[in-house]
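Two records follow; treat each independently.
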Amino acid sequence: MIANFFLAMPGLWSIILIVVVILLIFGGKKIPELMRGLGGGIKEFKEASKDENDKKEDTNNIES
């Protein structure tokens, strides 16, 4: 089971190849903008899921 997990993980050369391809496609100046947008999206998702959990907890407290 564990051996299958490690076989599915990308190796060092695969990671290097992926980074080089991303640099070629987007260029060095565009990558920080993409990462900033990705971070903002993750932050919004976490806030939305936290708000949803808070609403569920409030509903459970009111019903109790």
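The next record belongs to a different protein.
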Amino acid sequence: MQPPLPAPQQCFHLFSSVYNRCIEVQCLWYVLLCVVGTTKSEDRATLLKKFNEKGSQYFVFLLSTRAGGLGLNLQAADTVVIFDSDWNPHQDLQAQDRAHRIGQKNEVRVLRLCTVNSVEEKILAAAKYKLNVDQKVIQAGMFDQKSSSHERRAFLQAILETEEQNEEEEKSQVAMEEDEVPDDETLNQMIARNEDEFELFMSMDLDRRREDARNPKRKPRLMEEDELPSWIVKDDAEVERLTCEEEEEKIFGRGSRRRGDVDYSDALTEKQWLRVGWNTIYSL
């Protein structure tokens, strides 16, 4: 799917927890601004003014999550893209709030990029766990000196019931979508705000497919299996065998040292032995 950029009256924030030059290279075909930890405070003010002014030519703002997630008002953008999640979930929440500021007139859409079976899934799971603990311990505690124990108990019970319901829905959804890969139309329905945007995104995908058809020798958009290193695509049985051997070594150890068999027989003939002896004497 081709990124739906630019759409009419649409501006983007692209947040990354670890700023990488590669991310900026991927956006080279768009007019963008960038704020990272090394950006000076006076330069930040200038960049914000350029991005928020009416009729600005900049519609993509690339920011690092830690440097651009606090103290910035970016109400000109209506789409927030979390390129890679932060280990601290509140950092991502604060980054999303950069678009939810006074002066925002459009519906804000937040997109989080995540690869299947990757460390990103572990980061998201850890972030969800932290937010869950925060909700049960801090939020349900109601440390405002006004709430009664009955109100705290009722609030915590409501949280637990909602959590159980959400877990059941997630399990059923995962079971339904486990083997399904969303197509362009499904993705467009997920990110489009209205029918006009949906039609625009479908038109862009159609143009992309036509462009691909005109260039049959182009490289694939995704890496093929034959391009991967051999150590990544090892046979499952081989990986399981190596894993079992490693686990057995941890449990049972490497075992006692094995003494090698020593051969004390004389492999030299008498003539060869005399020659070695005379050579040794002459060398002295």
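Discussion point: The longest strand covers residues 79-84. How would you locate this feature using only the token line?
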